[in-house]
Design a protein that fits this description.
The chain is of the alpha/beta class and 316 residues long. The protein has helices at residues 5-21, 47-52, 93-99, 136-148, 168-173, 194-203, 215-224, 266-269, 280-286, 291-315; strands at 25-32, 39-45, 58-62, 70-73, 76-78, 83-89, 106-107, 109-114, 127-132, 153-159, 177-182, 189-190, 208-212, 226-228, 231-233, 235-239, 255-257, 263-265, 272-274. The chain folds into 2 domains: 2-114, Elongation Factor Tu (Ef-tu), domain 3, CATH 2.40.30; 127-239, 3-Layer(aba) Sandwich (Rossmann fold), CATH 3.40.50.80. The strands form 5 sheets. It has a 7-stranded mixed beta sheet, sandwiched between helices. The chain has a 5-stranded antiparallel beta sheet with strand order 5-6-2-1-7. The longest helix is centred in the C-terminal third of the chain and has 25 residues, at 291-315. It is globular, with a radius of gyration of 21 Å. The structure holds flavin-adenine dinucleotide, FE2/S2 (inorganic) cluster (FES) and magnesium ion.
């Protein structure tokens, strides 16, 4: 039989492409970060997403058929291996369910990369990158790409205590200066991230500040850099972690008000946006609008877990 070499090549390409699209998405690695027991790092096999991912992008996950869609930032990517890294903190049902998955388990849907890439270029003066809590993870690809573009990178990592800190070595490898702060003084400087930030912007000219973390931290970073008293104004980007559902600008879940009375959508206009235009007080009020349902959902899940554990121990 004579094989048609062109057709054979064609077939090989199709098989490779099909393999890239293969669902669901496998967890290749999992580890706990820090000593808090609530922050996890996972490496997922997602070849198509890894190929297109850049700093600032995120994914939307749905763990199983009855699961909700929720966003997580792409904290790292490996185009060769076709993998992305996610880092998440357990705060409710979906993140707890994710933390219960193990290497070899699969996630039903992963959509991405979504959101705008951050603007990577060589800036005239150093850049300051601030990560608070689990927000340290999304700082890594930004610091890495800005460093590769030839910038001097000053990183400030903040957490409530030493147990919630992680990726210090990773961040140090892409930073010219690394400052650690904890609220309780258990590691590094005692105090909040705006203390070293204030010293830095008084000390030298800074081109941009990037802040990723709790809304309240980003609010105070933006206030520090907006230009007041003896402090200069510094262009500041914040990464908005508003509630997201579709991630494509259609549901309106992630909308936020701007100080000039406008409305933007974090999923398509961000998530990294100019921190000086965000109406943080409005956003802080809206962030808690589903807490009752979230609490109920977590309680039901915990109850299911307890019942399953009891059933297993009775059966063994
Ligand atoms: P729930 O009990 O459902 O909610 C707890 C809190 O999480 C809520 O009060 C709300 O503030 C927030 N939240 C709930 N549902 C959503 C949702 N659909 N979209 C956004 N926030 C929600 N967290 C990480 O730990 N690591 C990350 O890398 C990360 N990246 C994010 C990137 C973006 C662009 C956004 C918008 C959020 C990101 N978050 C990240 C937050 C993460 O999506 C929420 O912690 C997660 O959805 C909580 O789900 P849950 O069911 O466990 O908790
Ligand atoms: Fe629906 Fe942004 S998540 S509009
Ligand atoms: Mg939830």
């Amino acid at each position: 039989m004579i094989l048609n070499p062109i057709r054979r090549d064609y077939k090989l390409i199709i098989v490779k492409k099909f393999d890239d699209y293969k669902l669901p998405f496998e967890i290749l690695e999992k580890k706990e970060l820090g000593a808090s027991g609530i922050v996890f790092e996972m490496i997922l096999k997602t070849p198509l997403i890894a190929r297109k991912a850049y700093a600032g992008n995120f994914i939307l996950l749905r763990i199983n058929e009855t699961g909700e869609r929720f966003p997580l930032t792409i904290a790292d990517y490996d185009r060769e291996k076709g993998t992305i890294t996610i880092v998440f903190q357990v705060v409710g049902k979906s993140t707890k369910l994710l933390s219960h998955l193990e290497v070899g388990d699969k996630i039903l849907d992963v959509v991405g990369p979504l959101g705008n890439d951050i603007h990577i270029k060589k800036y005239q003066y150093p850049v300051v990158i601030i990560g608070g809590g689990v927000g340290i993870a999304p700082c890594y690809p930004q610091a890495k790409e800005l460093k590769e573009a030839g910038n001097k990178v000053i990183s400030i990592l903040g957490a409530r205590n030493t147990g919630l800190l992680f990726w210090k070595d990773k961040m140090s490898s892409v930073s010219d200066e690394l400052i650690i702060c904890t609220d309780d003084g258990s590691e590094g400087m005692k105090g909040v991230v705006t203390v070293p930030l204030t010293e830095i912007i008084k000390r030298e000219k800074i081109s941009i500040v990037i802040a990723i973390g709790p809304l309240i931290m980003m609010k105070f970073v933006a206030l520090t850099t907006k230009g007041s008293g003896d402090l200069p104004k510094v262009k500041t980007f914040v990464s908005l972690n508003t509630i997201m559902i579709d991630g494509t600008g259609m549901c309106g879940g992630c909308r936020f008000s701007t100080l000039d009375g406008g409305v933007q959508f974090a999923c398509v206009d961000g998530p990294d946006v100019d921190g000086h235009i965000v109406d943080f007080d409005n956003l802080l009020k809206r962030a808690n609008r589903f807490v009752d349902q979230e609490k109920e959902s977590l309680e039901c899940y915990d109850e299911e877990c307890r019942a399953l554990k009891k059933h297993k121990s009775e059966a063994s």
